[in-house]
Automatic annotation (TrEMBL):
Low complexity bias: start-end ranges: 126-137
Transmembrane residue ranges: 1232-1253
Name under which the protein is recorded: MBG domain-containing protein
Any Pfam family the entry gives: MBG_2
Amino acid composition bias (Polar residues), ranges on this chain: 38-88, 103-117, 1191-1210
Domain MBG: 1033-1104, 1110-1174
Annotated stretches, region: Disordered: 38-148, 1191-1215
Signal peptide: 1-29
Swiss-Prot/TrEMBL keywords: Membrane, Signal, Transmembrane, Transmembrane helix
Superkingdom: Bacteria
Amino acid sequence: MKRKVCESLFAVTLALTVAVTNIPVTAFATEINQSARQEQMTESVQTENQGQQSHSLQENHGAQNETNSENGQNSTDNPAGAEQNSGEGDNPAGTDLKKDNQFEGNNFQKVDNQENSGVAEEISRQQNTDDNQQNAQVSEQAAMLSSDETQWNWHKGEITQNELKKLLGDSWPYAGTYRWSKDRENWNKTSAYGNPVYTFDTGTYYFQKETVTWTGIQWNDIGTKEIHAYYNMEINIYGSSEGVVYNSENLAVPLNSTFQVYDNKYKFTVKNIENYEIKVTATGGSQGERKLTPDANGMYEVIFDDDVTVKVEYIATNYVNVKIGQTENAEVYINDTLIENEDTRVNLNENFQIKIIPQKGYAIEGVTVDQASVSDLSFEKYAASFSWYSGETNQATITISPKVVKEILALKENVIVSYHKGMNVERLKNNIFNTVVNKENTIPNNISIDDVEIQYQSGLGWQELDYKPIVGVFAHEFGNNDTEKIRISYKGNSQYAPLEAETTVSISDERIETQVVIQEDITIQYNTEDVMKQELLQYITVQDKDGNTLPVDKSELTLSYNRIVGQQELTVSYAGDDDYKDSVATATITITKGDATVSVNSQKITYGESFEAPIFTASPEEAKAIGLIVGITASGEKYASIDLSEVTVNDIAGTDIPIYGKKSVQEVMRSLGMTSIKVGQLPELFEKIQGIIGSESDIAGVINGIEKVINILEKIVPGINDVTIHIGELPTEAGVYTAAGVTVNSNYNTAIGVGTLVIAQKKTNAKLSFNQNIENKHNRLTAAEAESFDFGGHIEVDGNAVGDTPGIRTNFVGKTATGEIVSGTEAFKEEGEYIETISIIGGNYLAIPIVRTYTIGEAKNTIQFEKKIVYASYDGNEHGMTAYVYNEDGDKLGEAALEYQNILQTSTNVSPVENSSAPIDAGMYRVVAIYDNAESEVGTLVITKAVAQGTVTVGNAETTYGQKLNLNSVIIQTKNIAQRDIAAIQDTIACAGSDEAIGSHAITVTVPESVSRNYLRTIKVNKGTHTIISKEVTITADSCKAQYGNTFPEFTYQISGVSDKENLGDISVVKREDGNHVGTYTLDVQVANQNSNYKYNLESGTLTIKKRAITVAIDKKQKVKGQKDPVLTYTVEGDGLVEGDSLGIYLSRKSGEKVGLYDIYMDTSNLNKDYELASEPSGKDKFEIVENKAGLTNQKNDSGKSKTNGTQVKSVKKQPGTVWDRIKTGDNNKPVGYFIAVLISLAAIIMIISARFQRKK
């Protein structure tokens, strides 16, 4: 019930709204329909997913060419029928309104007949509404069509129905119905079902929308729109890199890329190249592939009904024919062009490029040209490339034959691969490769082990041969199974592609059985381990089971035996390799004592230096030598030392001894309580070591050797046996020493060696010095100072005193103040003069004796010049002398005061006066040094004149005419001139000459006498030059404008760069070119009687002649239907025509012979270039055709002011960019009515929403 009330209220509201606003009732039909559908969906509790087909308009990505389509191309066919969809499926855009809506046209009253009788009366009253009021419903669409888009550009002119409706202002579910026409006579209409695709020709279309009113269906204009259909076009050039394609405007066309053509045809030309023919073909569209032929002007034309690709081929006329041999499995390119036929052409005298690309699984093994192999083939990504010279013979034939082979990696089946645990993985790879790969049937047949990768199936995928699986992983190591699945992968290269193949092999240890053979009764001499091994290997061979010696490396055999003198058991083991199995053998050998030597590194060093190690060397090293050093120091003391820290008990025994074996002899001595030992006790020490070794080794020979050494040393240094040995030391005191070495390894025959060690006294950087120096020049001491003075001396090395130096001696000799001669080893301290001498005898140092004199008495002061006579050369600086005052101890007390007097005048202007300041000028000066309590001293200072040639060079200067030269800015350069003299010379700069005209004159200086007197030679002056250059002046012609046909303005100019313009000459401006038509002309500046002091820059201006503005009014014309058209004329207004000119305007009218008004068109394409239209004709003047009711004849031509072209045109092209027309919608001046209608509509909407809300509850 509530729903019916709501619908009744809504119907009343609708009727009132229609009555007040004149809005057709169909404007509300969609809302009712949608509301009904939504309530039906709610009641059925179903969600119906009506898919919306959304197709975006194809975008125009290319430049838009000028549209050449014509109006009036009416098609009798129905373009809307192209590519129609069936309408099946759930497509809201194609839903029939009769199914979904509860009304259709006048059947709207069937919604609720009983409760809406008032609505029916109101509707009946509206049936006579004016047509303009009925059109108000399309105002929204009209507003849409006034958008900034001037045209629609569609690929092939195609668009889907939904996209078209969206452009026309419709929205989902696109329920509106539309139609369109180019001539308003033949219409195409949107489909009620599906989403078909429509095809539009280029042109201007009228669009209308269907409106349902109470009186029936009405079609209302919503505007016009230009539609441009375009096609994609691509042009490619082959055969010449110089080829070019030009469009109809003679502009080069982009090649190898797609561009858009906004017409159903496209014209172009192709550049002709000497010695080439041109073949042009097109593909695409209903015509398929076709050859294009140029017209008489060389113009090609493509007709479009689909996208087109054009192929331009340049075919050489002077050529060599290239014939390609069998190439079933490869493609051949010549100069980057695929050769699809067996023959092709190349230019004469040309190096052409050949590239052969094999198909997958094939390779190029070689190429022959005229049966000769090509040697310089290059490969990249399996393609073979080379260059070939075509030759000079026209139409000769070159045959290129590539050898194309199928790549094969051939593997043998059921083969055995030799393998054993621990085999080198590279050897294993070689075994597999050499056993499995069938090289005879493999291509490439030069495949090697380095070209492949070999893997096995581990149970966990393919793995490398040395793969070690993790414990617990379901995988096995290679060789654990009797058979293994192998995969060999060829890596490939630039010529051959990668390959791989699989096979299964059996695993077996196929190595050769071996035996080790040792000769009997082997006796060798003890030596180092390596030497003994090499000697034993001479008696050992590895043989196969047949007794053949095998080529094994004996150095890899393992020898095990007790390496000590006596009979020993020898075990020899061969570990085998990847070719041979392992084996072992034993035998008894005899080892005799080895020979050894001891060398002593005799040396001489200076005290304080160290001996170079080692001093004792045994050969072989394991024979171990100990060294005993004895001698007498420079002080006369006996010395002995031995180092036993590096010799162990094992070294002496020649084998491993338990407990004590690794201890040094020195450690054994401490354990035996022998902390101190004399030379004669050494044999006793080694006898105790024999007791420690026991029967494991006999060291009697070692003890005997030590006794021999002691006997030798006793003869050299008698009494040495009783000297205590310095254990682990070397001699450090100056002296001469004997070094004796003896080997102690019992496996060697004992050897002895003797040498000499010398430590010389140090004399380098060693000197004697006094304990205290007398700190004055005269070595004078007072009696009191002498009492505390430290007389005597000491040794210094490198400036550092050495303490406790033995052998230093001090002696004194002299005469006392009383005349007594005295001498002794103690210093004399009474008044007198004495000599002290220091010397050294023996010890570690050798130094020259030193001597000094000293005086005991009182001191005196003296003055002393640093230099008695000083010479200097004049350089502009002060030159002085220095004198110091000393006391008799040599202490400097300070400087003496000096007075200078010029005793040799160099100038009559200088008087001989004394001065305490150091002099500067040349001359001879007497210098007196004065100090209190000292006698004055006299010295001499001589300052000579400067000898070097002095030079003054005056710089050049440049000024512009009229500019004053600043002399202070002139730079002078000097050579051999004192700095103090430069300023005096600078002050004398003068310029000789006038600044009144351009030219040059000298700049000079004068050397003052105060300067020249200090120079021996006359100072040379180099004059400078003052140059006056022309002043630049710029005269610029003023640019101006004039209208065609009017008098030119007066030509003027501007001057810059000078203030005085009167002396520039006679200036004028002239026009360079003849003529008075529209364009730009150059204005030149000319100057007569130019002033030579100026440099003229003459800059041109321009005269611009603009077009003459006119206004053209088209004369109205009329004729009687069926009669001939009168001549179309026009009238020129505005600035008018220049006498003798013609405008070049042509008139035509819209075609048609029915009664009515026709537009008159004005063609200005040939308008005189000196004119322009100030405004377009108003278009109000029409050509009228009237009925012949009263015997009317054609209208005569107007007055002589009108112009005519005397021709008529049947049709006129519509220009692109046509603005869409706004449609008049009737009288809308009803603001109060609209306001009331809005309020009523809002109330109705609220009631509908409320009703739905209550129903949901």
